[in-house]
């Protein structure tokens, strides 16, 4: 009966968001209250579960998401992303232009949130397609595959970062594992898969073209790369150094502090404020306005994350997590595969990768102690599942369709299949890595 209640409540959540068009946060809140009542939580205890779920989920996450949004917005506004892509295209040349765009998408996708990154790189894709007289989808798909992978797999993006917190995983290790798994996923879904749709015709709309910044207004190459990739470098370096220092001491304490994701993002934003802001002629007021706009962009993301935290807390407080764990132990499906399947089903039903990842985490997190799997790999397995088969209920599907001016059929053939390849390759990568870590 308990599992039936959970199933019906998740179906209700899916229907409210997809069919009823209810705001995801409101849907989470309503469904969580109903779920709590049906699972036997006393009425006067439900508000406490709601507040604890929000607090525990957002407590360590708000700083990372907000500062990440600020950094991404500044990277875009300053022209740093444009500089990185220009340099890489010069290095790779026309013959390997897809690989240049793929690498560009991966680099700028790390600090940029998906929607910002998508809108930013579309003009670049179109300009390259016109310059080299190549099909726009063939040129652009590898770059968008990279952007999708960073969104689903790598912190400090909202869903992976939230999952790291819920599973108490090490963010640096998750990032390292994520990069290793992302490489084959991007290659297969990008340059390899795009060869099968090279003849697919697209007529990008002129209204979507955006004028790039003049060359003399762009930041330098070193400045652009350092400011964009500093969070990644700091997380990886501090993680490696901490493994090399087994004994406690002042230096290890300092490294632990500097390796905290919130501190990493704060240091990066402070440096970028000067390197991409003040040094590029922007006033402090202009930079702060950019940061304010960035926070507005992620406000709803934070609410959705907190809503998923409420549902997770309801599962914990009702004691249902233990019952689910007991039931799942009788299944022959490995936990990493099961988590991927749950995330993939919710993704197909809801369309949002972030909601799919966070909802799955709410189901899996309470029983992590009994599953005996590496928490970083669980983060990546759910992240991979949350990217499965984007279709008509996903905003990314329509962004791709409208920007490239494609038919629905061609969008399924290109975008939806690309996302599916990324998702399945990610699962296989997680399972292979599970054999060694």
UniProtKB/TrEMBL annotation:
<dbReference type="Pfam" id="PF02447">
    <property type="entry name" value="GntP_permease"/>
</dbReference>
<feature type="transmembrane region" description="Helical">
    <location>
        <begin position="257"/>
        <end position="278"/>
    </location>
</feature>
<feature type="transmembrane region" description="Helical">
    <location>
        <begin position="412"/>
        <end position="436"/>
    </location>
</feature>
<keyword id="KW-1133">Transmembrane helix</keyword>
<protein>
    <submittedName>
        <fullName>Gnt-I system high-affinity gluconate transporter</fullName>
    </submittedName>
</protein>
<dbReference type="InterPro" id="IPR003474">
    <property type="entry name" value="Glcn_transporter"/>
</dbReference>
<feature type="transmembrane region" description="Helical">
    <location>
        <begin position="298"/>
        <end position="316"/>
    </location>
</feature>
<feature type="transmembrane region" description="Helical">
    <location>
        <begin position="174"/>
        <end position="193"/>
    </location>
</feature>
<feature type="transmembrane region" description="Helical">
    <location>
        <begin position="136"/>
        <end position="154"/>
    </location>
</feature>
<keyword id="KW-1003">Cell membrane</keyword>
<feature type="transmembrane region" description="Helical">
    <location>
        <begin position="377"/>
        <end position="400"/>
    </location>
</feature>
<feature type="transmembrane region" description="Helical">
    <location>
        <begin position="58"/>
        <end position="76"/>
    </location>
</feature>
<comment type="similarity">
    <text>Belongs to the GntP permease family.</text>
</comment>
<feature type="transmembrane region" description="Helical">
    <location>
        <begin position="225"/>
        <end position="245"/>
    </location>
</feature>
<dbReference type="GO" id="GO:0015128">
    <property type="term" value="F:gluconate transmembrane transporter activity"/>
</dbReference>
<dbReference type="GO" id="GO:0005886">
    <property type="term" value="C:plasma membrane"/>
</dbReference>
<feature type="transmembrane region" description="Helical">
    <location>
        <begin position="336"/>
        <end position="365"/>
    </location>
</feature>
<keyword id="KW-0812">Transmembrane</keyword>
<feature type="transmembrane region" description="Helical">
    <location>
        <begin position="96"/>
        <end position="129"/>
    </location>
</feature>
<keyword id="KW-0472">Membrane</keyword>
<feature type="transmembrane region" description="Helical">
    <location>
        <begin position="30"/>
        <end position="46"/>
    </location>
</feature>
<keyword id="KW-0813">Transport</keyword>
């Amino acid at each position: 009966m308990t599992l039936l209640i959970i199933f019906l409540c998740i179906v209700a959540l899916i229907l409210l968001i997809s069919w009823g068009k209810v705001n995801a946060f409101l849907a989470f809140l309503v469904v969580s209250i109903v779920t709590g009542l049906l699972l036997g939580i006393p009425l006067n205890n439900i508000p406490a579960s709601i507040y604890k779920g929000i607090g525990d989920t957002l407590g360590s996450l708000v700083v990372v998401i907000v500062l990440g949004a600020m950094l991404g917005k500044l990277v875009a506004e300053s022209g740093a992303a444009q500089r990185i892509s220009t340099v890489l295209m010069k290095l790779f040349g026309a013959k390997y232009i897809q690989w240049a765009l793929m690498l560009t998408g991966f680099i700028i996708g790390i600090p940029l949130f998906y929607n910002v990154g998508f809108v930013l790189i579309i003009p670049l894709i179109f300009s390259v397609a016109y310059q080299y007289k190549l099909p726009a989808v063939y040129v652009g798909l590898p770059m968008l595959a990279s952007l999708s992978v960073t969104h689903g797999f790598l912190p400090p993006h909202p869903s992976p970062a939230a999952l790291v917190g819920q599973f108490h995983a090490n963010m640096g290790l998750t990032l390292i594992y994520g990069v290793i798994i992302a490489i084959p996923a991007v290659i297969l879904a990008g340059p390899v898969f795009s060869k099968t749709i090279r003849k697919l015709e697209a007529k990008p709309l002129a209204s979507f073209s955006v004028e790039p910044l003049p060359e003399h207004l762009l930041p330098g190459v070193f400045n652009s790369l350092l400011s964009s990739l500093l969070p990644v470098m700091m997380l990886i370096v501090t993680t490696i150094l901490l493994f090399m220092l087994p004994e406690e001491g002042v230096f290890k304490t300092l490294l632990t502090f500097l390796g905290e994701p919130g501190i990493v993002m704060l240091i990066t934003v402070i440096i970028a404020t000067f390197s991409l802001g003040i040094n590029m002629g922007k006033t402090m007021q202009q930079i702060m306005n950019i940061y304010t706009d960035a926070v507005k962009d992620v406000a709803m993301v934070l609410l959705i994350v907190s809503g998923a935290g409420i549902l997770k807390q309801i599962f914990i407080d009702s004691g249902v997590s233990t019952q689910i764990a007991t039931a799942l132990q009788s299944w022959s499906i490995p936990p990493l595969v099961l988590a991927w399947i749950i995330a993939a089903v919710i993704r197909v039903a809801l369309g949002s990768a972030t909601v799919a990842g966070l909802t799955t985490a709410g189901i899996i997190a309470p029983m992590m102690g009994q599953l005996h799997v590496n928490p970083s790999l669980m983060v990546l397995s759910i992240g991979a599942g949350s990217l499965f088969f984007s279709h008509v209920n996903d905003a990314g599907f329509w962004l791709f369709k409208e920007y490239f001016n494609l038919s629905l059929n061609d969008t399924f053939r290109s975008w939806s299949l690309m996302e599916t390849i990324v998702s399945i390759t990610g699962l296989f990568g997680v399972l292979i890595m599970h054999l060694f870590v």
